[in-house]
Amino acid sequence: MRLFINALAASAGGGLTYIRNLIPHLANLRELQIAVLAAPGIRQEFPAFPNVEFIEMELSTAQRFWSEQFKLPQLLGSWRAQVLVSAGNFALRNSPVPQILLSRNSLYTSGDFYRDLLSRHEYRMCLDTRIRGALARRSIHWADATVAPSEAFAVELRSWSGAQNVVAIHHGFDLETFTADSSPLPVQVEQRLSAADGALKLLFVSHYNYYRNFETLIRALPALRDSLAKLNVKLLLTCKLVPGENPGAYRPDAAARLVTELGVGDMIVELGAIAYRQLHHLYRRADAYVTPAYTETFAHPLVEAMGCGLPIVASDLAVHREICGDAALYFPRFSPKSLAERVLQVLSSDDVQHSLRAKGSARSAAFGWRKHVDQLLALAASLTGNNLGTSCIL
Fold it and tell me: Does any domain span residue 219?
């Protein structure tokens, strides 16, 4: 099978995490030839695979959709592709080969996100998201099959689009691969972490954006400080609440002002972005993982945290419950009070911590990239009539 992957949208966050893990597993299959259309520099993330060809193209976000519509059919023809995997929420209209669309952006379907943008007077971003959402909805109909990373999001997409060609294939996780890099954290990061030694450390892995709901997490900190007066609590962030320090157009000004107004600056450790291969060091330095996100499609950090043995406190989303099951404690997504109560429940009980760690470790083992690739290729084979058997595996 000749598989063409359009990964131009995989530049940060979960999209880049997906490509980082998908490509090596696909490369382990002989009789599978892969082309990856990606932004310049992505190929440097990977070793040289004999059956993987990278095609580099530099496009702005505004240019990407329209350029793909005209240039991608020519690339598919010249490369003799048999199936197209569109990995960035938008499909190719009238694809000359069967097309699988990977849809993993819940912002287009989230009423909470639109209300959040309006409350922040982000009218331009709101309009832009509406337009992109309309294209993403049409894309589901243009594709032969659409893959969502969770059943909860697949249900949402079917309802939103009216299309029934949406299937759920969980993203994967391989603990051995995730923890393989032994290189130390950057000196400045290590210094900030060392300064927090002896404190109870909560971890939240995300660059700053609105839908990860940083403000609810920040508002929970005074209650934690008051309830744990004899203990020092630190919140570790893999971003900086400073304009220009995060990808995208999200402005952290309101979050930074909230930190000052609540007087919790001493409780927050802004580590900045951490290389993906080194994240496991950070998980293993923390005492608990917390996420207040109000919309998600899969949430890779939850599986990573469970795999690294962290108890989890998560906002009560259908996606979070699907991924974590009973390996997490949940709270209403906009309730700082409930968030603080769940964190206290974890930090004040060794039994709760032990139970969540054990359940999380077992739960993370249910997600595998090999399993994801097998299901994705089975879907591709069903669309192309190409029979990929176990003989393809090296």
Answer: yes
Domain count, the chain: 2
Inside any domain, residue 393: no
The reply to whether 142 and 217 lie within a common domain is no
What is residue 393's predicted lDDT score, i.e. its pLDDT?
38
Tell me, yes or no, whether 16 and 147 share the same domain. Answer: yes
- Could you say which residues of the chain have pLDDT below 50? 389-394
Q: Are residues 130 and 240 in the same domain?
A: no
Q: Cα 41 vs. chain centroid, distance in angstroms?
A: 20
Domain CATH code at residue 208:
3.40.50.2000
Distance CA 209, CA 246 (A): 8
Give the model confidence (pLDDT) of 356-381 as tens digits: 999 999 999 999 999 999 999 999 99
Only one residue has tokens 């969540």, namely: 356
Reduced to 3 states (helix: H, G, I; strand: E, B; else coil), residue 166 is: strand
| Model pTM score | 0.91
Tokens of 385: 């009539």
Question: Phi/psi class of residue 263: alpha, beta or left (left: φ > 0; alpha: ψ in -120 to 50)?
Answer: left
Specify whether 199 is located in the same domain as 110.
Answer: no
* Alpha carbon 391 to its chain's center: 32
* The total number of residues written for the chain in this structure: 394
DSSP 204-226: E---S-TTTTHHHHHHHHHHHHH
User: Can you give the pLDDT at residue 391?
Assistant: 38
pLDDT at 46: 87
Q: Is 125 helix (H, G, I), strand (E, B) or coil?
A: helix
| Rounded percentage of the chain residues whose pLDDT exceeds 90 | 80
pLDDT in the model for residue 322: 98
Determine the pLDDT at residue 392.
Answer: 43
* Whether the Cβ atoms of residue 36 and residue 59 lie closer than 8 Å to each other: no
Q: Could you tell me if residue 261 is inside a domain?
A: yes
Residue 334 in contact with residue 298, Cβ under 8 Å?
Answer: no
